[in-house]
Design a protein that fits this description.
Strand content: under 5%
Largest sheet: none
Number of helices: 4
Helix content: 55-70%
Structural class: mainly alpha
Number of strands: 0
Radius of gyration: 11 Å
């Protein structure tokens, strides 16, 4: 079962800025990042955990 997590665009923007990783690198690693930031899609729990370095 895939669990999707609603994340506000402001939080995505904050995480991008805080990561200090070039946006191009983040978009390569997370192709849906723009959609998440605009609220057009929600990341899975696994994607979020992977992005946060938990997995």
């Amino acid at each position: 079962m895939t669990v999707r997590v609603r994340v506000k665009g402001e939080l995505i923007a904050w995480a991008i800025e805080r990561s200090r990783v070039p946006l191009e690198d983040l978009l390569f690693r997370f192709p849906s990042l723009t959609k998440w930031g605009h609220g057009d899609a929600n990341p899975t729990l696994r994607e979020l955990a992977h992005h946060l370095g938990v997995v």
